[in-house]
Design brief:
The chain has 97 residues and is of the alpha+beta class. It has 3 helices and 5 strands. It has one domain.
Length: 97
Amino acid sequence: MIYERSIEDKITETIIGCGIEVHKILGPGLLESAYEECLCYELSQKNLSFQRQADLPVIYKGVRLRVCLNFQAVSCLSIIRIIANWITAFETSVFSS
């Protein structure tokens, strides 16, 4: 049986690859804004559409509030949360397995 990867799998693989590329070049310890800027560059080089600093509507005590979360919505299929050391933690867990 030949397994054909879904579009979601392909996009996820590309996003993770972009994150690893950013970490390989920048390393750990920078501000989130540095990783965000570089990740956005990598995503655009892969022709993935995304939205920076997207708003998330939140209902709090019956009131609709607009909360800006630090994430990118990529191709309407994946959400990336930029945390300065996330890539380091991900890389460590992958390569120590």
